[in-house]
Amino acid sequence: MRTVGVDHESFREDLTTLVREEGVTAYIPIIDEEISGAATFASAMNLSVVGLNEEGAKICFDKFSTHQFLRELGIPTVETFSSDDPFDQMKNMNGQLIAKPRHGRGSLGFRLLDSPSDAARLDSDYVVQPRLSAPEFTVDAFLSGETFRAVCRERIETKAGVCTKARVFTDPALECVVQVVGEALSVRGAYCVQFMHDGHGNPLITDVNPRPGAGTAMSGACGVDFLSAHVAEALGRDPTRYLQPLGRQRYVLRVFSEIVTQ
Prior knowledge:
It is a single chain. Helices cover 29% and strands 27% of the residues. The chain has 9 helices and 12 strands. The strands form 3 sheets. Strands 11-10-7-8-9-12 form a 6-stranded antiparallel sheet. Strands 3-6-4-5 form a 4-stranded antiparallel sheet, with no helix packed on it. A two-stranded parallel ribbon has the order 1-2. Strand 10 (189-197) and strand 11 form a beta hairpin.
């Protein structure tokens, strides 16, 4: 079988062939572009799937739509403008401004703007936001029916958009917000929500990811294994065995290791 990217036109065709030849019964999409449409594909192939329906995925993978969705829920979120919004709407934003790809992820395409007028030179697939302050948190969560568990990760150090040092702890207020978001999106399985602070110490949602995050394994290292729970849910097994209470806060450090082979 040929190897193609998830955005290649033949991806679904090759995936269909793989499912049929290998007798696949559960589908666990992990890439943003793959999650969009995964529920429709799984239904057509009679597969168990975790994640979101197509409508929810479209909301999460469009930062402007996410902003509108959260505002309608009454949940504090970072002010967000599309790059083609009138300049007058942006000029009242205080502090430094940032631009992000509207459908991007991680830190790819991130840039600083000197003034709102710089937005006029951006591609149409960008959003403009005020630059928020540290600390930055990611809340890892799992939701399925009546089962909900979440823990928070303060991103102490980040490299290339991936957390490498974290404080893992519980915060009932943040976790409650994340549960409301997950229920409103009808999430099934593991997901994560990112927060940063405004200038007054109030947490604002910056991103909603309908999948485990690149740093979710750090929560798993502390005994709350969202990744295993995600797989168990797809396989029809009990996910709660992997979602034990955190207990006290922990600090997690990721390190690289050199491996010598013959």
